[in-house]
Amino acid sequence: MVIRRLPARLHPAGMSRVEHLSKAEHWLRELATAEPFHPEFELLARVAEKSADAVDREIVETHAADCANCRAELQDLRAYVRSSQGARQVWPRLLAWAAGAMIAIAALWFVDRADRPGDSLKALQIPKLAMSLAANERQLRGGERTLRDVGPLSPVGAMVLDDRPVFQWSGVRNGKYRVEIFDEAFHPVAASPELLTTSWTPPHALPGGRTYLWQITAVIAGETFTVPQPPAPEARFHVIDRRQALAIDALERNERPSLGLGVAYAEAGALAEAQREFSALVAANREAERARTYLATVQAHAP
Amino acid sequence: MHALPDPLGEADEVIRRSLMKRRGMFEPDDFDDLRSEVMLRLVRRLEDREAEPIASFPDYVAIVAFHVVDDYVRKRYPDRARLANRIRFTLTRDDRFALWEIGRELVAGLPAWEGRRAIPFSGGMAVDHTDIPGSLLGIFRESGGPLGLHAIVSLFWKPGRPVAAPAPAPAPQMDRTNVGEKLWKEIRDLPLRQRIALLLHLRDDSGESALVHLGVGRDEIAATLGMPDAELAAIWEALPLDDNRIAARLEATRQQVINLRKCARERLARRIARW
Hints:
The complex is a heterodimer.
Chain A: H1 17-32, H2 41-48, H3 54-66, H4 68-90, H5 93-113, H6 128-140, E1 151-154, E2 158-160, E3 167-170, E4 176-183, E5 188-191, E6 199-200, E7 210-220, E8 223-227, E9 235-239, H7 242-252, H8 259-268, H9 271-283, H10 288-301
Parallel strand pairs in A: 2-9
Antiparallel strand pairs in A: 1-3, 3-6, 4-5, 4-7, 7-8, 7-9
Chain B: H1 8-21, H2 31-47, H3 57-76, H4 78-93, E1 98-102, E2 105-109, H5 132-143, E3 147-148, H6 149-156, H7 179-188, H8 192-199, H9 218-224, H10 229-236, H11 243-250, H12 254-273
Helix pairs in contact in B: 1-2, 1-3, 2-3, 3-4, 4-6, 8-12, 9-10, 11-12
């Protein structure tokens, strides 16, 4: 690249090219002495167990490409996750086989719900609960759910497949947080210990087929407060019934993306996952017309 | 020895206390090196104009001290760091265990103990690296109460030969030729999200956007940010953007934006070191 003459609007008044380079060099020196960054354990663990989102994966994987220690730790943790999962799968194998048969039947039902080329397009049956959660979220979005930069981000207004969803919230550096989860009757279900991070995964599975509310108690600069708090809207989500989640899990192991899986997501209420699957089909130009139609239906109901 | 300028003078005692809490994790001879490293990071942090304000300086100092020790362990005892990850993974993913934080220290035990302080424990029972959950159950049965995570790792880990401390890196002798061009090339080689998190937040000494100092036209900056020039023009006067606004553009959390930027800065630092 050749440094070319800058448009006048990019020049602060009276600053020469030499001064620009001097600024760049100063910045370089700052970079060269920057505090090392290594992904914290929870981030590494989520990538190792494949529960991290695309952003977190990018952070960890690009860093690991350059950092031999973190690369070795990630590889080791991945190996441990695989061996742990293998060990967990050994003893209840008989139960797993029985369950597997039931799941396969359920999965076949979902596949059958998906349209095949030549069939007329079947209407998606999105659960009313997913629509009402999403509609409620749309109506309430913009309400004052955030206080002093702290507010719930996810899961909010959605039906989720994971019975141990990753709770994420906006926060500030040096803040301390505690997450509490309640059922719809406001009975406490789970609570985190004091956290310095802005995400947390509950150690125990939340029972499926239920709707939950959650809130964050933050301690920032000595002040304690809870968000969201009335009159702000509650942060609600629903954990999808375990049998449906298992059936989807079986479909996820097949070739991706797939129309059947997209339909399964949508009809279980997992609208974000359904959008992702249909979008991937459109991008891959596979059953794109049907996927586009379904995508539009899901987008119309998503928060 | 000259007195350290405030607030670093106040930090010294916190550093000593924080390092002493983790004294089992490093060679006693390395104490002064670690203390110096914490100080160095604090100085850099205080000089970093892009960094967020520090809410509680003593808390921040303690966290930096812990990070310095963690980085030391990773470099000198990589097998201990990997073992600690495995144990921590088990403690956070297996329903039979719980891990919580008390006063910046991680404490682990059975779920029924959650929130309690760690008890002193010096058990020397045999542990099986191939059965971490089983070994943890045995340890907690023996201890009868929660233990600090580092104490638990120490029960599993038998110190081997530390990896030799790397020789101090010479001060970077930067090749001054074509600095702007080389920097811009490295930035363009970053993944898109990292470019966005870095460039939209970039600020100079006065707090204004530092994009003007990169020596390239706005259209090229826009292309590097993966956006039309008109879109960059629309936000140009509002630059630098705060993390919440960048997070909204990336559909990410604020913490992810901070991590993307840290990752980008460190990647650039590694590349620059090779110039």
